[in-house]
Amino acid sequence: MNSGKLQLKTLAILLISFVVILTAGCSGEQASSDEDTIKIGVLASLTGALEAYGKQTVDGFELGLEYATDGTNEIAGKKIEFIVEDTETKPDVAVKKATKLLEEDEVDFLVGSSSSGDTLAVLPLAEEYEKIMVVEPAVADSITGENWNKFIFRTGRNSSQDAVAGAAAIAEKDVTIATLAQDNAYGREGVAAFKEKAEELGATLVNEQYADPNSTDFTANIQTIINEKPDYLFIVWAGSNAPWKQLKDMKVEDQGIKISTAAQDIASLKTMDSLVGMSGFSIYYHTLPDNEVNDWLVEEHKKKFDGRIPDLFTAGGMTSAISIVEALKKTEGDNDVDTLISTMEGMEFDTPKGTMKFRPEDHQALQSLYAISLEEQNGVDHPVPVLIRELKMDETEPPVRNKQ
């Protein structure tokens, strides 16, 4: 009897040991599977005011992975997966979603986001969890400035690059320029960078006007500028309450003052009928770059999206994906963060906008922008940016602001 009990007890122990070994084996297989996958978490505004930005970014990111991996979504034998989370353009939601991606999904990279406010809220998490965050398309200078940490790389341009490109497009010796901008960090940082570059090129800033970001009446600002009689009025503005119609109503250009500003995404271009004929700059429009990557993007986007052309944020999303894949190609799939950082610092990579380079000092991607004129074209429902000349990355390089 005792012998039987002993045999049963021994059998039970052996059975438990077998289950433990089997479970460990399965767990090992799962771990191995995870090790063979690179996970990327994409933060984007998929609802709310910036919904169009977020959806374009995600579409572009998916196309970028397809392009950079030749359709395999693999690199060095590892699968690449991406998980998209909606920040709702709310910083607290962005932090919650980023934390979920980092802790539950255990992503190797973060990408995003559509809003500078969301992005600034998430930056400390990249440092805390020691994961690279590729910033696209948020533009605030402080992202690669005072709030930067070594895990942050930005493929999107920053506000200062916009302003420097704006100056390169119109500023020269003996030209006088007035500015009109929103009275916030975006507007004041933009004007400061524009002024620095414009004066370097020999122009003189004769007046700076700042308006309430929520205002719809700019009469006093515009009249002050008219009284100054500058050669150009350069405008730094973001949002639907832009002063374009009032500038036309007050006949600014009829008084010999040329208007210049950024030609941004297609939605913005549809509000700029009154600016046809202006000289300014563009961040991206699908007909401006002349390279194989952009040709592929335009063709594949039309195939995938019923003949629609890619927009500004589509190209940006594609660029962010390419930058990650190119870094992983160079490390042969090694996702060790220190290895990736040293690889990406100074890295050059091809994008729909041509070659970009991550500046070692602050990881801001140096890139081309475009001096353009805004013209009407038959069959197009918005003014079209027409290339005057490409502004190369050395012309649009912004100041280093991270004090490293």
From TrEMBL:
Gene3D superfamilies: 3.40.50.2300. Keywords: Signal. Pfam families: Peripla_BP_6. Residues 37-375 form the Leucine-binding protein domain. CDD domains: PBP1_SBP-like. This is Substrate-binding domain-containing protein. Belongs to the leucine-binding protein family. PROSITE patterns: PROKAR_LIPOPROTEIN (PS51257). SUPFAM superfamilies: Periplasmic binding protein-like I (SSF53822). It comes from the Bacteria.
